[in-house]
Structure to design on (264 residues):
């Protein structure tokens, strides 16, 4: 009986370590969140944060920055036709991202280490063309340029880049690499100047209209941003990153940014 009790107790302890907290429900302005000091790599709480069941998404509601539970879904424009899912290795499975064009749709599938694909589909979906097997996390149009933000992170591999999509002389869609990000991109948005703001494994980057890539903030520890899923900037130039366990707020200061974490 004593042995059975110890087995059950050990199981409960292990589960509590793997899942340190129950999923929370929240949809509120970030000023309602509790401010805590950023966790440091190597401390006991880091594993609890990494294994947390709470992934927080940031978004703008008027002038306010709000936070809610992150639920992955289809991103981008709606499709007027159905795409029969195929194999991930063929680039037809995983998360889907859509951008409407003047002659159809750019559609990306991303199944992580299992495969990815970027396609052009005709307006009715009867024709399609595979453009690439890069890992796109979303499309964005900036100053009439269609960009695809890429990010692939698996084990020791972390790769990210920006692709530009346009039609060639024969009116066929093609792409070129605009800039190498150095590591995987996780989320992006447009800032108030219509520049591209991105969060990678360890940095917040900005790509301006000239194609110049600027590092706005760099985390120096190995922890980085924990499974970032969203990024926004408020009217005070503070940057918010939605991530696992907490929201990371980068408060704009004269010489850069001060990092603090917000717990919903």
């Amino acid at each position: 009986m004593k042995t059975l009790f110890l087995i059950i107790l050990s199981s409960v302890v292990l589960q509590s370590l793997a899942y340190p907290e129950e999923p929370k429900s929240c949809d509120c302005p970030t000023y309602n969140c509790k401010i805590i000091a950023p966790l440091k790599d190597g401390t006991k709480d880091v594993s609890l944060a990494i294994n947390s069941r709470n992934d927080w998404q940031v978004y703008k509601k008027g002038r306010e920055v709000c936070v809610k539970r992150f639920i992955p879904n289809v991103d981008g424009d709606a499709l007027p036709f159905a795409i029969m899912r195929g194999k991930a290795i063929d680039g037809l499975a995983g998360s889907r991202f859509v951008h409407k064009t003047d002659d159809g749709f750019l559609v990306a599938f991303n199944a992580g280490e299992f495969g990815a694909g970027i396609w052009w589909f005709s307006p009715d979906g009867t024709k399609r063309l595979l453009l690439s097997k890069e890992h796109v996390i979303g499309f964005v149009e900036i100053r009439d340029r269609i960009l695809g933000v890429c990010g692939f992170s698996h084990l020791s591999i972390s790769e990210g880049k920006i692709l530009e999509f346009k039609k060639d002389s024969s009116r066929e869609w093609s792409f070129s690499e605009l800039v190498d990000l150095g590591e995987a991109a996780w989320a992006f948005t447009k800032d108030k100047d219509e520049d591209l703001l991105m969060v990678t494994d360890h940095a917040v980057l900005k790509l301006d209209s000239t194609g110049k890539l600027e590092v706005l903030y760099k985390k120096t520890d190995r922890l980085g941003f924990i499974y970032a899923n969203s990024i926004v900037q408020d009217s005070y130039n503070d940057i918010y990153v939605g991530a696992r366990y907490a929201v990371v707020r980068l408060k704009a200061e004269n010489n850069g940014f001060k990092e603090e974490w917000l717990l919903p």
About this structure: The domain at 25-263 is CATH 2.120.10 (Neuraminidase). The first helix runs from residue 2 to 18. The helical segments are 2-18, 45-50.
